[in-house]
Amino acid sequence: MKHWFSDGAFRAILRNAAYLGSGKLGGALLSLVALACAGHALSPALFGTLAVVQAYASGVSALVKFQTWQFIVRFGAPALVRNDVDRFRDATRFSFGLDLASGAVGLVAGMALLPFLAQWVGIDDGDLTLALLYCTLIPIMTAATPTGILRTLDRFDHIAVQQLVTPLLTAMGSIISYVGGLGFAGFVITWYVAELVGDLLLWFFAARELKRREIPHALRPGLLAPARRIKGAWDFVWTTNIAHSIWSAWDPLSNVVVGGMLGPAAAGLFRIASTFFESAGKPANFLEKSFYPEIMRLDPASKQPWQLAIRSGLLAGGMGLLMCLVVMIGGEPLISLVFGKRYLGAFDLLQIMAVSLVVSTASFPLESLLYMAGRQRAALVAEGLAALGYGIILVALIHGLGLAGAGIAYVGGMCMKALFTLIPTLTVYRRRASLSHHGEAAAA
């Protein structure tokens, strides 16, 4: 372990992960406050409807969202190392154009489909207007350009601040809605405002940092011209978009399926359990977000990125095991305290889901290694196969076992994702000597 910390890249990963963790830790606690207020103020059915409304908007944005932050890091970070500001600007302009286009598609599609899906997912006619209002957040939810800019410019501290602001505003709005007796409408509107302000803050940070670095016109959207100057741009964004849309939509759409098959109350329990699960897996998520920019600066033909991945995976897996134990011991009293005893059914579900924590956390470097090696299509195949398998067993097990079946399916889906990603990663590692240097590939 002492030798690990002599690696500057490993230290940078931990430093940036600490920045993200400092914001997300407070954010997770504040999110629990918001959910607790909603759980106590609303009936289980209305609480489930609130969860479905938010999950629907998040799910639609995840489906249409391009991973533009990854594109900026992939092509922009090496460019800045070479002081090629024009290439970095092309990367940000192309990403911004994609964000605008995908956001418009998501907004139109999401609002057009919701009236037809509302009854199936548990949204009553009286709540449809508020649900449609929440859908207007889809364009800003899809935008990842400011995140990519800040990660490339190594301003993880700004991202950490933004990650704290949104849940803080959500918690404040939830407290006001609870104390003021504003009901379902109050929670929807205050959560809407919190999401909007928090996302706009990220754009402000990115624009200010670009101005400070004297990189003008980086937020002027463009598509065709920048793409022509960046070889492989469209292939990268389409492949990563489909792969990550599948993964990002995993939880929101799972919630929608549970709500559609078992009712809004079950959707509320699943939302509580998945929120705890996501919070327990955050340390690995922080490592992943800081791991990707660092590994993109390394030579995939050398052993350094692969050693870095093993060290990071082992560290994350250890954190996952620790968090699994914490969930098993403290999950029940915490849910009872925060949400009340009527929501204790979420702990039974959480116990099942927690089993997959070690697998999901320890396997986080695999996808980034495939991107580093230019094998993003292999990552897409792995995501697609895992999602297909998960969808099949989710529906089957819910029919057979009810809500517990959803938890078992969740574990199976996580394990399939890790396995299907590991296989091509091992193949790439064995053939790593044939891989070109990342910096040379990016400049091609």
From TrEMBL:
It is a multi-pass membrane protein. Keywords: Cell membrane, Membrane, Transmembrane, Transmembrane helix. The keyword Transmembrane helix applies. It is found in: Cell membrane. InterPro entries: Poly_Biosynth_Transport, Polysacc_synth. Its main location: membrane. The chain crosses the membrane at residues 51-73, 94-118, 130-150, 159-178, 184-206, 313-331, 343-366, 378-401, 407-429. This is Polysaccharide biosynthesis protein C-terminal domain-containing protein.
